[in-house]
Design brief:
Layout (H helix, E strand, L loop, with lengths): L2 H16 L1 H19 L5 H27 L8 H11 L2 H18 L4 H26 L4 H26 L1
Helix pairs in contact: 2-3, 2-5, 2-6, 2-7, 3-4, 3-5, 5-6, 6-7
Length: 170
């Protein structure tokens, strides 16, 4: 197996283990919070901290819902066991929020204002959502106009966040 195949295998394993849906949830949650907090914040640090804290809170809510909700189906394991399992297996939500925060921070490091860095991160989110949707559709055998349609539909979710940001900024 060559280096490129190994890299693809690692990405494939990561996406299967962490759950692409959770990664996308994390990206969407953090982008919505970033859009809202950056509308009136004068400090990029406030935006990063607020977005990070909400992302962690959302992750903990996701863990809790999985642990307690799963108890109805998994009567053989204790709540403690279910909680440990949920903490280990729901990291995708946190991982999905990281790229959005990193792109915002990079924008700030390169001298962008809070609003411009937020828009940079949001456009990055649009690209990320579209790329993941395109990869998923392609792996499912979708080609041509249908592939373009599925990719565009995913991008629309990111564009809705940009519209929210625009409304809040004006």
């Amino acid at each position: 197996m060559n280096v490129e195949q190994q890299r693809f295998t690692r990405v494939d394993r990561f996406m299967r283990n962490k759950g692409p849906a959770e990664v996308l949830y994390g990206a969407l949650v953090s982008s919505v919070v970033l859009a809202a907090t950056s509308a009136s914040a004068e400090s990029g640090e406030i935006v990063l901290v607020a977005t990070g804290l909400v992302s962690v809170t959302y992750w903990l809510a996701h863990v809790y819902a999985d642990a307690v909700g799963g108890r109805f189906e998994d009567v053989d394991h204790s709540s403690g066991h279910r909680l440990k399992h949920a903490l280990r297996n729901n990291t995708g939500v946190l991982l999905g929020s990281i790229p959005v925060l990193v792109v915002f921070a990079i924008g700030r490091l390169f001298g962008m204002g809070v609003v411009d860095a937020a828009f940079l991160a949001l456009w990055f989110t649009v690209a990320m959502l579209a790329a993941v949707a395109a990869l998923a559709a392609h792996r499912a055998g979708v080609r041509g106009a249908a592939l373009v349609g599925e990719t565009a539909l995913a991008a629309v979710f990111g564009l809705l966040v940009i519209v929210l940001k625009y409304i809040l900024s004006h």
